[in-house]
Every structure is written in structure tokens, then in C-alpha cells.
Amino acid sequence: MKLFVDNLTNVDFSYLHPHRGLLGESWLVQLVLDGSLNDQGMICDFGIVKKAVKQWFDTYIDHALVVPTGMPRLSHSQDDTHTMVNWLYADGRALNCRSPKQAIALVGIPEVTPHTLADWCNAKLLELFPDEVKGLSISFVPERIDGASYHYSHGLQQHDGNCQRIAHGHRSALEIYIDDQRDEQLEALWAKRFEDIYIGTRDHLISDADGMHHYAYAAPQGAFELKLPADVCYLIDTETTVELIARHLADQIKRDLPDAAVMVKAFEGVGKGAIAEA
């Protein structure tokens, strides 16, 4: 007997890709439990399943930087409070991140894919359930997006929750309307500009030298630092909430089209986001 829960939750996180570097991602979570029926005629109560799995993902994967420890050109270390990650691009440029331990998930796999990360999660999650549950299968499904989308990473210093983590991210759709007509050409242009980007806040940038950006800030969870090549970064003058990203895009487009009515619908992962007009 099997119990399934489609779209149980979604996870927004960033991870290190062996070629693309820091990559923001958003995946829907599907779950199948395999087991025997209890005295109530159930494998496990749906409410218990949803709460336990979502809480686990919120703790270990969601809004974290996921680092596959088997990837090439990687080193990492930990002290009592922080995790340090150092990785080299193929051309020798470096990415360095120092964050509180809970902000970086060190995962014993060679590369992050929906399949490899799901396999790693399966063994951890099975321990959460009663004896009636004999097997568990997690699968990750990227949202189907018809149109422009981009992967971005960021960190929100002023956020009280896990969004304060300096390297977490999203895969997001983008819609742009000019005089109430959707402009797919502009959407594709900005999606390409934001492809695999780190959107940084200018006040967090403590150094811009030798083609590298060095970001740092203190937040409630601790001290965060990130250093990576400048050409994979995009600076804005504000915090990088989706509301302010949408406003920034609307303002930039309005400068090029001063006589047009501009509306930007910017998504933050799956099914949520902000609308800005200019």
C-alpha cells in the first residue's frame, strides 16, 4: 500500500553547480510512502506527513546553500559556529562563502540534481515516520514555466527568518507588460541578463577589486560573507526583496521607454512574487 502527497511543499535554495557556479533553484516536493495499514486503516496521517516533511525541509534545505561535498575543486571546513566553503571555477577564479552552520547544507553527493538530492533526503526523512512506514520516496519537480525565467541568488540582511542567509535563491518566472501588452522580448532580455546571477545590495559590498565582489553583513543568525566573480553579480541600491527587484526592473525599463506604462510581475520561486508599475 502506498500513500502519496503531490506538491507537498516547495524548496527555494541555492547550490554549487560544477560549471555554472552559484545557482538559485526552486523545486516542488512530491512524496510517496510505502507501508502497512495501522488500526485506523492508514499508513500515516496526512497532517503528520505534511508537517514533519515540511519542517525537515525548512530546517535542512530550504533557503540554504546546498554544497555537494564530492564535487571537484571544493574544500570546506567548520568551527563551532560557522561553515566555510571554497570552490574554484574551471578558469581558476574562486567562490568563498562563510556562513552560520545552519545556512549551509553539506551533502555527501558529487553533484546536485533532482535525483541525487532526493536520494540523499530519502534516507534522512524515513527516520521521521512510524514503523508502519516501510519505504519513502521523495522526488523534486521543477515548476513548468511557459516563458522567460532565470536562476538567482541573494541574501536579505534585514529579514528575521531564513531569507537573511547570504546565499539562497530561486528559479523564477518573469512577466513584463508595456501599455498592458505582454512583451516577451523584454522578458527574454532581462532573463538572460539575470541568468545564474547573484543580486547583491550595494551596502553589503565591502570590496570590489581584481574582478571580484566581496559581500558581508551581520544578521540575527550570525555573520555572513560571500566572495565571487563580479561578472556573475548584479548590484542594486536596496535590499533584494522581490518587491524591490520588481520595482528596480520597472524603473530600469521605464528609463528606456519613458512614454510607456510599464508593469513588471516578478516571481520569487513558485506561485508568489510582486508587481511593480512605473
TrEMBL record:
Per the UniProt entry, the Enzyme Commission number(s) are 4.1.2.50
- Pathway membership: Purine metabolism; 7-cyano-7-deazaguanine biosynthesis
| Reaction(s) catalysed by this chain's protein | 7,8-dihydroneopterin 3'-triphosphate + H2O = 6-carboxy-5,6,7,8-tetrahydropterin + triphosphate + acetaldehyde + 2 H(+)
GO terms for molecular function, please? 6-carboxytetrahydropterin synthase activity
Name the top EC class. lyase
Q: Which residues form a coiled coil?
A: none
Superkingdom of origin: Bacteria
Q: Which InterPro entries does this entry report, sorted A to Z?
A: 6-PTP_synth/QueD, 6-PTP_synth/QueD_sf
One Pfam match, given by its short name, reads PTPS
The entry sums up its family as follows: Belongs to the PTPS family. QueD subfamily.
What is the protein name for this chain?
6-carboxy-5,6,7,8-tetrahydropterin synthase
Please give the organism.
Pontibacterium sinense
